[in-house]
């Protein structure tokens, strides 16, 4: 904050000043009464004439008539804290001579330039017209215009000797910029309100505007009231001149409570920046609930906006922000003063399919604006509310309305701004709010919208959100993902996995972490699990007391609750990319919650691991490269993610219906109610040789059903998880050399976080290195069978159905989804 609050230091200075006045007054009174006794008659006349009728002209801007004004009673401001400040001043408060008892006193500050000098006589005559609470006019005059100014004033006074407004001349030092000079003079005003003019004076203002500016209309709230305002819009501004609207800030002519003007010492601090925008910013945090002030008077002709170019705030590169508009903004009254960004959008593009609102701090915009623009280019509407100084405003790569959010940083933004937005009904049209500011009030009030809260530290990694469709955004909070870790006695492996979980990005989502610990777990593993702190949800520990083995450990590590619960099953020799969750969320939203045609009941899970080897071919292991396979086969999109029947156990998300079905299948299979354990279900695959492997049975189910899993297909095997193939259940008693060779075959490079610097807006994570930067439609995903051969969904389903018929003797195809009795024909 550049300016101080108007409260204590200001008041203190005023009280000191008043104390001084009161002492001076006491001395004066003493002297006067002494003299009065001696020369009663003679001096009475003089005192009267100079006290109530005289208009004097001073050179140095002193307030030598203070004692006079002190004798009058203070009048409160219409509202608020400023009122009580004025009351504090007690009997020695200042006030003008003629002000009506119902209106506050006013000082006008008139800067003199060659241009304003031309109209000065007209300006002053208009200002001095009664009725008006105008008590004083301060003419801020460069030395070279002193005599001309004095001349004009004398001419006015000579024409009308009924003028009882005090006029003073104050030197405007050549080095001081107009805004600062004016505010400095305003700060010293002895009245509760000041009217600030610029070199245009009051030319071209309507009578109604003047009534507001001269406080003939008593303001309802203590804030700056002006007829010309500037509102931020896109990467620039709109010049606003209509009644009842708010603006980010107002420019002269404007009337403002004196106490709201920052102290002179603070003014100096903003000498090189945008005086009026800083003042607006200051006002919006200083007691008023209307951003930057309130517009008054009738709608001005937008073509008469040559004032606007003079007051354009400068962007961070020092050039004035571009001007948009004039956009017609309907006159609104202060109850819904915050003009609706959403409405502006609706006016701009006809068809609206979904409305997004981004709520952020200024420094977050470089990450959020590209996202907002992506949505807009897809046909949605998006607007941005930014909490702090527009100096942090980044150039938007597209037309996106940006409005400022008046609230002190760090405060809960629900307090002052949202009530007025809510009252105006604007937010009712918003479908999705993406916010970097946590606000309890906001969440409570906006329960009808989807509120996605992204922690600021995750913002540089949100480029993938560009590929989320509207339906998918609406389901942001629907899936519940549990992380299910399976561990035994490999503390070093476990530590690496937990570290990768800690450094991954979760974009504000909550995920519970379940750790399944084998009976044979060592003490270091137990200690590590005990000490691990998980910031994104609950930790559930499960410790076995009888040995279960890997099959039991994996299969029992999770059981779904409802059809939106998912588990990422993680054996402890897996390590994750920091972007694993982004990938999961993106693909889960698309293929489970996206458009109807992109969802399929055949999809049983999402693998984070890329396939680099095919293990199920009867002749042995084969190297595998999806991209070259697709290229050789002449597929149109060799970089597309693909579907495969192979279940992955090195970092994969499993879906509830299929996992439930797997439990039922396993129960039937292990209890040998249908077939003997040694029965071959899938012909000619190596997994038939695996014993006590959960995957062997999962593969059987997948084969019979024609299910598929989604696999990533990024360049150079860049993967969201990898396996370190450590000695454990899978890898036992192999010679070191063989083991190391094997390890190399399975270890994949993890997709890393992109570097973040100050220049790029939104660094690419690499997750969108997809055909057209999107996850492809379901029907375009290549399908591979268990042997890694290109197939189609129909072929694999038919293959499974045929095998089922062969094994069960059932002619009827299985019709009940996920019903194992139906599948095994045991009903
Ligand atoms: C006066 O200021 C105090 C503290 O800044 C605030 O709590 C109170 O609401 C204000 N009163 C009005 C009427 O604005
Ligand atoms: C007043 O309006 C006229 C056009 O109506 C314009 O030419 C002139 O520049 C305006 N004056 C000021 C000070 O804005
Ligand atoms: C904002 O100001 C108006 C007008 O003074 C007042 O009626 C309203 O209660 C205020 N709203 C808030 C949230 O302070
Ligand atoms: C979940 O899906 C299964 C299979 O489609 C269905 O039978 C079950 O009713 C669903 N459960 C819930 C809670 O919707």
From TrEMBL:
Protein name (database record): Glycosyltransferase family 2 protein
Alphabetical UniProt keywords: Membrane, Transmembrane, Transmembrane helix
Superkingdom: Eukaryota
Residue numbers spanned by region Disordered: 50-72
Ranges annotated as spanning the membrane: 20-38
């Amino acid at each position: 904050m550049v300016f101080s609050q108007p409260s204590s230091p200001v008041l203190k200075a005023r009280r000191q000043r008043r104390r001084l006045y009161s002492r001076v007054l006491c001395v004066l009174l003493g002297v006067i009464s002494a003299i009065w006794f001696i020369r009663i008659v003679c001096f009475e006349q003089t005192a009267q004439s100079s006290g109530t009728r005289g208009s004097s002209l001073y050179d140095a801007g002193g307030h030598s008539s203070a004692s006079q004004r002190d004798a009058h009673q203070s009048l409160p401001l219409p509202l608020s804290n400023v009122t009580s400040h004025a009351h504090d001043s007690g009997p020695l408060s200042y006030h003008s001579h003629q002000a009506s008892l119902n209106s506050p006193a006013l000082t006008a500050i008139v800067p003199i330039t060659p241009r304003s000098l031309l109209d000065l006589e007209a300006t002053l005559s208009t200002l001095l017209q009664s009725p008006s609470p105008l008590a004083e006019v301060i003419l801020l005059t460069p030395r070279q215009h002193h005599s001309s100014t004095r001349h004009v004033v004398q001419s006015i006074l000579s024409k009308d000797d009924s003028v009882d407004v005090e006029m003073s001349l104050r030197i405007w030092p050549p080095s001081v910029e107009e805004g600062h000079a004016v505010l400095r003079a305003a700060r010293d005003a002895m009245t509760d309100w000041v009217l600030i003019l610029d070199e245009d004076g009051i030319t071209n203002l309507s009578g109604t505007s003047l009534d507001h500016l001269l406080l003939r209309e008593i303001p309802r709230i203590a804030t700056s009231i002006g007829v010309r305002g500037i509102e931020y819009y896109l990467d620039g501004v709109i010049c606003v001149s209509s009644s009842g609207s708010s603006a980010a800030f107002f420019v002269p002519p404007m009337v403002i409570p004196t106490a709201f003007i920052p102290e002179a010492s603070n003014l100096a601090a903003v000498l090189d920046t945008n005086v009026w925008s800083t003042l607006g910013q200051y006002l919006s945090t200083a007691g008023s609930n209307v951003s930057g002030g309130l517009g008054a008077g009738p709608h001005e002709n937008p073509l008469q906006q040559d004032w606007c170019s003079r007051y354009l705030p400068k962007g961070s590169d020092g050039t004035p922000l571009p001007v948009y508009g004039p956009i017609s903004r309907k006159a609104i009254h202060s109850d819904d003063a915050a003009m609706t960004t959403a409405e502006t959008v609706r006016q701009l593009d006809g068809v609206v399919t979904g409305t997004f609102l981004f709520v952020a701090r200024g420094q977050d915009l470089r990450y959020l604006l590209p996202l907002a623009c992506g949505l807009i280019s897809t046909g949605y509407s998006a607007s941005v509310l930014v909490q702090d100084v527009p100096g942090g405003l980044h150039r938007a790569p597209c037309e996106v309305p940006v409005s400022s959010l008046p609230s002190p940083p760090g405060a809960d933004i629900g307090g002052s701004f949202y009530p007025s937005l809510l009252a105006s009904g604007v937010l009712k049209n918003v479908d999705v709010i993406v916010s970097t500011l946590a606000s309890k009030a906001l969440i409570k009030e906006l329960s009808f919208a989807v509120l996605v809260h992204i922690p600021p530290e995750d913002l540089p990694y949100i480029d993938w959100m560009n590929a989320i469709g509207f339906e998918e955004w609406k389901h942001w909070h629907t899936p519940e993902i549990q992380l299910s870790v399976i561990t035994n006695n490999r503390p070093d492996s476990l530590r690496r996995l937990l570290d990768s979980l800690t450094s991954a990005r979760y974009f504000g989502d909550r995920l519970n972490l379940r750790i399944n610990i084998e009976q044979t777990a060592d003490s270091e593993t137990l200690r590590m699990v005990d000490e691990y702190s998980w910031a994104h949800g609950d930790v559930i520990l499960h410790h076995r007391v009888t040995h279960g083995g890997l099959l039991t450990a994996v299969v029992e590590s999770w059981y779904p609750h409802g059809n939106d619960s998912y588990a990422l099953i993680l054996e402890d020799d897996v390590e994750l990319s920091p972007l694993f969750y982004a990938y999961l969320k993106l693909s889960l939203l698309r293929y489970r919650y996206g458009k109807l045609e992109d969802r399929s009941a055949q999809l049983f899970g999402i693998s984070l691991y890329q396939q680099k080897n095919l293990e199920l071919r009867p002749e042995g292991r084969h190297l595998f490269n999806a991209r070259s396979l697709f290229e050789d086969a002449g597929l149109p999109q060799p970089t597309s993610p693909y579907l495969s029947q192979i279940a992955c156990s090195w970092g994969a998300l499993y879906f509830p219906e299929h996992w439930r079905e797997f439990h039922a299948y396993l129960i039937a299979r292990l209890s040998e109610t249908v077939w003997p354990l040694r029965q071959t279900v899938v012909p000619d695959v190596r997994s038939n040789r695996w014993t006590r492997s959960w995957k062997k049975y999962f593969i059987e189910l997948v084969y019979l059903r024609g299910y598929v899993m989604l696999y990533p297909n990024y360049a150079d095997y860049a993967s969201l998880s990898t396996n370190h193939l450590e000695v454990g259940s899978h890898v036992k008693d192999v010679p070191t050399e063989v083991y190391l060779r094997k390890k190399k075959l399975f270890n994949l490079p993890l997709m890393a976080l992109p570097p973040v610097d100050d220049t790029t807006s939104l660094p690419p994570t690499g997750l969108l290195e997809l055909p057209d930067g999107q996850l492809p439609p379901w029907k375009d995903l290549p399908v591979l069978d268990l042997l890694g051969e290109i197939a189609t969904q129909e072929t694999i389903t038919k293959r499974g159905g045929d095998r089922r018929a062969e094994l069960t003797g059932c002619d009827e195809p299985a019709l009940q989804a996920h019903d194992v009795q139906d599948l095994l024909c045991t009903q």
